[in-house]
Design goal:
Layout (H helix, E strand, L loop, with lengths): L2 E6 L11 E3 L7 E3 L2 E6 L6 H8 L6 E6 L6 H4 E10 L15 E6 L2 E6 L4 E6 L4 E7 L7 H12 L5 E10 L5 H9 L3
Parallel strand pairs: 3-11
Antiparallel strand pairs: 1-4, 1-5, 2-4, 6-10, 6-11, 7-8, 9-10
Length: about 190
C-alpha cells in the first residue's frame, strides 16, 4: 500500500487515528495552517472525506498526495514561516537577524542563553503589532514561542501573543507542498 501524505489546516492537534504519523511536533500554544500527517492507507477518491470525519473540531485536511515510496518528511522539513501577532512586535522583530543574536529562556527548569542566529532565516515587520519570521525546525530548531517571549520580556511588550505556522520548507527552500507535488508527479 503506497504512503499517502495529507496537509491539514488549521491544526491545534495533528492526531488522525491509527497508523498515522505526525511530523515535526508543534509547540503547545502555536497554531498552524501548514501541518503534514503521514497516513499509510489505500488511496481512493473518498479518503480525504473519510479523514475529515475523524478530525477534531478546528482541524481540516486540505490536500492529499500519494507517494510512490516512503518519504521521511520530518527529515526533509528544515524551516517554517510563522506569523506573530503581539503588541509592539513589529518595532523590534528585525533585530533578530543580527549575527550572533542570543536569547535567554528556561529549558528543563534552568535558564539558558543561546546564540540562535543560525536558526533564524528571515524576520520582517508586517505592521506595528505583526511580524513574520522563518525559523529552523527539526533537531536544530528555534521554537517561535521562546523567541516571542524573549522579545516581550526584553522590550516590556504587554499583553498576549499569537503565533501561527503558515508554511514549511525543505533545506533547498522549496515549499513542502511543491516538493510533494514534484515527487507525486515523478519529477
Amino acid at each position: 500500500m503506497p504512503p499517502t501524505w495529507t496537509r491539514s489546516a488549521p491544526s491545534p492537534t495533528r492526531f488522525v487515528g491509527q497508523k498515522s504519523t505526525p511530523n515535526i511536533p508543534l509547540p503547545l500554544g502555536v497554531n498552524s495552517v501548514a501541518e503534514y500527517v503521514s497516513i499509510k492507507a489505500q488511496a481512493d477518491s473518498e479518503l480525504l472525506d473519510r479523514l475529515q470525519n475523524l478530525c477534531p473540531l478546528g482541524m481540516k485536511f486540505v490536500k492529499m498526495w500519494t507517494m510512490p515510496t516512503d518519504v521521511n518528511l520530518a527529515a526533509k522539513i528544515t524551516r517554517a514561516d510563522y506569523e506573530i501577532v503581539c503588541q509592539g512586535i513589529g518595532g523590534v522583530i528585525e533585530e533578530v537577524t543580527a549575527d550572533g543574536y542570543q536569547i535567554t529562556y528556561v529549558e528543563k527548569g534552568a535558564e539558558v542563553t543561546k546564540d540562535v542566529s543560525a536558526r533564524i532565516f528571515a524576520a520582517r515587520r508586517d505592521g506595528a503589532d505583526k511580524a513574520k519570521v522563518t525559523l529552523a525546525v527539526g533537531n536544530e530548531n528555534l521554537r517561535p514561542d521562546r523567541l516571542v517571549r524573549y522579545l516581550m520580556q526584553k522590550y516590556d511588550l504587554n499583553g498576549d501573543y499569537d503565533v501561527t505556522k503558515i508554511d514549511s520548507y525543505t533545506a533547498d527552500g522549496i515549499a513542502v507542498d511543491e516538493w510533494l507535488d514534484s515527487i507525486e508527479n515523478g519529477k
